[in-house]
Amino acid sequence: MEIKEIIKNARERLHIESLTPLQNKLANLPSSVAHVQAIAPTGSGKTLGFALAMLKRTKGATGHIESLVIAPTRELTLQIAKVLSQLAPKLRITAVYGGHRVIDESRSLEAATPDILVGTPGRILDHITRGRIDLYRVKTLVTDEYDKSLELGFQDEMRRIVRKIRRPQQIILTSATRQDDDLPEWLGANKPLVIDYSENEAEKPQIKEYIFKSTEADKLLALKTLLLRLPQERTIVFVNHRESAERVFSFVSKSGFPTVLYHGALDQQDREIAVDIFTNGTAPIMIATDLAARGLDIPQVRSVIHYHSPSSDEILTHRNGRAARMGAEGEAYHILAPNESYAAPEFTGNVPSGWAKPYTSLYFHAGKREKLSKSDILGALTGPGNLSATEVGLISLHDHYAVAAISTDKAKSVAAALNAARIKNRKIRVTLKTL
């Protein structure tokens, strides 16, 4: 693809007005550069950066996989595939990852060979072993957040995957922090070109940090008080353990806040729905473990709350990077027990009236695989649902289901109307998605 076309798509589809210094560097990499290590804070646009470098080498319609992106998590895999689809709508891009029906991936791979494959190490290797994909002629290999893949123990899988590529013309490794001692061994003696913006102020999230003191070791009441003082915008509360996430979620929900839960023990679909209703405004508070600190591309997160202190500076960087993405401003709040300390000013703020619930999510029991589109859903909501376009919020479409945000005061009547009607000439069950 031509760089001009990619940038045009970024502007029109992703609303990117100008490239960051990191993205410019990656977009203009000489073809002679074989290995690249790109380092920049979370939220600085690394995905667009490596996409520019990769897509300009990808022609499409060659009958084989030209580019491969390896990501450590399902969430990051889906985010990357979504961005690439927006930048290169004419290319065939397939995402493979654990936690959902492998038969859907198999059918997609059998139907046509992708131009670009994005996936987690285990699932990519599984498809290789079963003979569903051939990486022999891959020209560009990207390992996004490669340090996380190594941390999760994917060294062997990545090594076996890379061995299936005859001779990649370019390998790009990305991370949010510099890890000189953890470069993958399969790079051999080759020293990569380092593009390091980890200390560049222009690339760092514009985060203002505050402390909020709890009078007790148990911080639940302090969290409630803090939430009441914050703007009613997207807020992620980070805890260190799944059990803590369940406990905090239960308390915050029972306290009347519109809240979702996100951690690794949840099913993949439950995590996807949690992101959907967090993003669409149905539940603008997310209680999460550090699984949510990487890989989620959620726009306009205003606040991050550290209910538990992060276990390392690197995790702090990733958590804070959820807010203030791509140069926006945001705040991070550290709730401190009497025996804890952190160097930041103390937060004081006015007490608003509480968190409103303007949106409710409708759950459609059909998705892309059932030939349902976002236009079909919008047409149903504004047709038999009798809503105006302004009363419909974000619509998220998945393989076998969809989620749409609508005005709370009309949710029950709209669900009833849609269940009594037909969508695309067939009955599709629609239910209210409870939190």
What secondary-structure arrangement, pairings included, does this model have?
Layout: H1 3-13, H2 21-27, E1 35-39, H3 46-55, E2 67-70, H4 74-87, E3 93-96, H5 102-111, E4 116-119, H6 121-129, E5 140-143, H7 146-151, H8 155-163, E6 170-175, E7 193-196, E8 206-213, H9 220-229, E9 235-238, H10 242-254, E10 259-262, H11 268-279, E11 285-288, E12 303-306, H12 313-320, E13 329-336, E14 359-364, H13 374-382, E15 392-397, E16 402-407, H14 411-420, E17 430-432
Parallel strand pairs: 1-6, 1-7, 2-4, 2-5, 3-4, 5-6, 8-13, 9-11, 9-12, 10-11, 12-13
Antiparallel strand pairs: 14-16, 14-17, 15-16
Write a concise synopsis of the structure shown.
By secondary structure, this protein is an alpha/beta fold. The chain has 14 helices and 17 strands.
Task: Please explain how this structure is put together.
This protein has 435 residues and is an alpha/beta fold. The chain contains 14 helices and 17 strands. The protein has helices spanning 3-13, 21-27, 46-55, 74-87, 102-111, 121-129, 146-151, 155-163, 220-229, 242-254, 268-279, 313-320, 374-382, 411-420, and strands spanning 35-39, 67-70, 93-96, 116-119, 140-143, 170-175, 193-196, 206-213, 235-238, 259-262, 285-288, 303-306, 329-336, 359-364, 392-397, 402-407, 430-432. The strands form three sheets. The chain has a seven-stranded parallel beta sheet, sandwiched between helices. Strands 8-13-12-9-11-10 form a six-stranded parallel beta sheet, sandwiched between helices. It has a four-stranded antiparallel beta sheet with strand order 15-16-14-17, sandwiched between helices. Helix 11 links the parallel strand 10 (259-262) and strand 11 (285-288). Helix 2 packs parallel to helix 3 and helix 6 (121-129) packs across helix 8. The relative contact order is 0.12.
